[in-house]
Amino acid sequence: MTAARFIFPCRLLRLKMDRHFRGHVWTFGDDISTDHIIAGKYLGTTDPKVFAAHAFEAVDPVWAKKVQPGDLVVAGDNFGCGSSREQAPIALKALGVSAILANSFARIFFRNAINLGFPVLECPGLRRQVNAGDMIEVDMARGEVRLPDGGVTRFNPLPPNVLEILEAGGLVAKIRAELSPKP
Amino acid sequence: MSRSGNEVPYGMSGLTISEKILARASHLDAVRPGQIIDGEVDLLYMHEMLAMALLPFNEIGTTAVWDPAKIVVTLDHWVPPPTPEIAKMHQTIRDFCRKQGIQRFHDVGDHGIVHQLIAERGYAQPGDLVIGSDSHTNMVGAVGAFAAGIGATDTAAVMATGRLWLRVPETLQVEIRGTLSERTTAKDVILKIIGTTGDDGARYAAVEFTGSTVKAFPMNERFVLCNMTTEMGAKVGLIEADETTKEYLAHAGRPFHPIASDEDAAFTKTFTFNVDGMGPQVACPSNPANLKPVEDVAGTKIDVAFLGSCTNARIEDLRIAAGLLKGEKVARGVRFQITPASQIIYRQALKEGLIEIFMDAGATFTSSTCGPCFGGHLGTLAGDEVCISSTNRNYPGRMGSPQAQVYLASPWTVTASAIHGEITDPRKV
Fold first, then answer.
1. Which CATH architecture group holds B282-428?
2. Cα→Cα distances B239→A78, B81, B139, B217, Å
3. Closest chain A residue to B381 measured between Cα atoms?
4. For B168-274, CATH number?
5. B55 touches chain A (CB under 8 A)
6. How confident is the model over B9-54, as pLDDT tens digits?
């Protein structure tokens, strides 16, 4: 995996920032809750480094050390269920995860991620088609995932209002743009 | 069809409570599921997430909140603060509220778990669009409001603009009818519903409860139902306001305008749960939908029993615990912690002599906080501990170590289990 990443530095291969990703996959199952992603005991701070350092600790105590910038998370149903803690997507984004693809997302996690400019894509069925460590390519605008065997899985692109927030770089940037006087 | 076509441009059917509230909040005649609206928020409430929201709030570049009179803030997750860093976080929040002129800031001492505080002080009324910085904001929908939880950036956006984009949710109507077995509560009902629909059975949807069982429930039970719609993945849980609601909110002295779904409202799905004779239920580790009737897990040894959280730590819950504990002792080797949902409940428990009963029985009684429920502080679990809890979630690591085993149950089942040192059917004690 390390060698492959050295040969294909994924960030250089992104055709367009935040629209096209190529990266290694980390797989997770159904109902991955915010408690799995970042435990309550680490929330007594506002420092993203702390959240990042303990991401997915309940699943794998050293996951945060293994994940590499540009990696992708692929999960089953209801990813991010549970708490409203935005520290969960903050942790994964801070580690450089470029996007999360899941069969479905819990609603607050979905909003939080989009608001941070962090792509979360509903791609039903993808979880069954990939294995941990696979290299996949995601075209967010076209709604396509290219699998290691060359096959393509399609998904519905994000709705326009959500895409608009993501393209702006997150909700703060979007509101700033709206509030700033027009030239 | 009782509604005219003029009022409903998108179709012939009527509107649900949520659709009516969102239409009003976005100045539209009608809204339909899937539509994106820009809603004017009637009430924004926050706990310590305010500290996380300050960074995006400052980045937005506005200096003042949109309307300090429409904001309520309390401290609940870490009360009193267990570390210097959290004490500092509280200071930051305190200073912000003072500078922004947020009068309804309920500091440590006057605090409560925010959803309970909002409910008991009558801050949310039927028909309001309520936004809270916590996933269990759904609870407040029990007064007939549209109450949805959000994260830090959304919170910052609402603070700055007073508005929030929302996708109009489909409405699932859940009709509950029948008479429960003795010592069986709304908690058992909602666990049963979650166990049936799964922990994403209402993802993105509004859940509207109706039926004779719901109408007969007092407010404390209605709060439990709506509270745990979060564990169905719902955006909101609602109950049409009625005389019970009116009486509960009377002390607030605000105009009371209940909203009902139209008779021909388009519910996406309708479930009917006949709970006649149903007994206590338990959600087993480590998913709120992993349901078993109490008989199936009775005898499981426990180390910890916890009665607390926004879900089940109201005065009625404490009375249940005291009723069972009077003249009894908590089992040897078991720690039973009782943490009321607010300072108002704490005071009431004190007045009624409940705290003395708890102490005589060997339970420990604490100030109000969310601490143990989310594994933050003031009673967390070790890896080999088994806990029965009146809270709402039991995902791995929720209450402490990821190896700890958490069973979710009603105050009746939690207290009976604390006395016997093992999961116990409260009808058999």
1. 2-Layer Sandwich (3.30)
2. 25, 35, 10, 11
3. A41
4. 3.30.499.10
5. yes
6. 445 689 999 999 999 999 999 999 999 999 999 999 999 999 999 9
